[in-house]
Amino acid sequence: MAGWAEIKQWKPDVVGQVGDHLAAQNKLVVGLQAELDLGRPAGWVGDAAEAAESDLRVRRQALEELAAR
Length: 69
Known about the structure:
By secondary structure, the chain is an all-alpha fold.
């Protein structure tokens, strides 16, 4: 863990840039989650459709965990 002496040496503009980058990456992840929420295309049925839907659930969960971190 960083001590106060180390924190005082940080450059606020760089910390801000890192924060902006992380916020942009989080926005990207949230956007991907929204795309996965669309689910199965209308009229798509059968084993392949069920497998794809299951895979999408797993990927969405992984994105939720990534966004939380």
